[in-house]
Amino acid sequence: MKLAFLVIYVMLVVSLALAQSSSHPDPASAALPANSQPPLPDAPSAYEPLSGHQKFNLFLQRTYSPYTFASAAAEATWAQMWAQWPEYGGGMEGWGKRFGATLADTESRRFIQTFLLSTVLHQDPRYFHSQKKGFFPRGWYAATRVLVTRDDDGDETFNTSEFLGALFTSSLQNAYYPRHERSLGDTMNRFAGALGSDATSNILREFWPDIRRIFRKHAPEKVRKIEEKVTSQIPCSITPPENTGCR
Q: Do 103 and 12 form a contact (C-beta atoms < 8 A)?
């Protein structure tokens, strides 16, 4: 039981820490700190927008984040285990093709959504934590961020960048996906899946600090030491701000 707890906890620390890194800008290149909370309704002047250059830097940071490659590798492995995209074949060659396809999905969407569309449409690609209290209000807030975002004036607006980014990328995938998965139905299924995946990611971002506190509270001393050792090896640029031991 203790071993299972240790493995689950360390995996959560590493995976969610890296996941957060892909959703927050580098403090040196963003107008707001990565752990900043959204301004209260009565203090809109506290909001600082990102410039087009800062949005591009955010895209670059997410592009070379270790989480990006680890996630693509995991998706490729899962697809090969379940014989998805059989046209790609098996073995390392087939896995490589699956890895390339999933990585292309991620990188193209980040460029289109995080930089291009957010710049053209003057929308903020960052996730802002909720000011609400309680599990369900916060969970609802996080999930609906695929529908609502901030514009460059700090006001809430429909998340056009999210929808168009997911739709354009789902259509672009028809250029390199196996031929029998290029139908309109397949494209719309990928579009819906992308929105659902982003909603899940937002919920994880919202509750990650709470999850971490719960695990730390109940973790044995040995597990805490392992966590500190693991997080200390993650560069500060990709580690959540609360992990002060990063190098």
A: no
Length reported for the chain: 247
Is there a domain that residue 19 lies in?
A: yes
Q: Is residue 42 part of a domain?
A: no
Cα–Cα distance, 95 to 81 (Å, whole number): 10
What type of residue sits at position 17?
Answer: A
Cα 217 to Cα 106: distance, rounded to the nearest angstrom = 35
Q: How confident is the model at residue 240 (pLDDT cuts 50, 70, 90)?
A: very low
Kindly state whether residue 247 falls inside one of the protein's structural domains. no
Across the beta sheet with 148-151, the strand order is 123-124, 148-151, 156-158
pTM score, whole prediction: 0.68
Q: Is the per-residue pLDDT at 54 higher than 90?
A: yes
Alpha carbon of residue 149 to chain centroid: 15
When divided into structural domains, the chain yields a total of: 1
**17 located within any domain:** yes
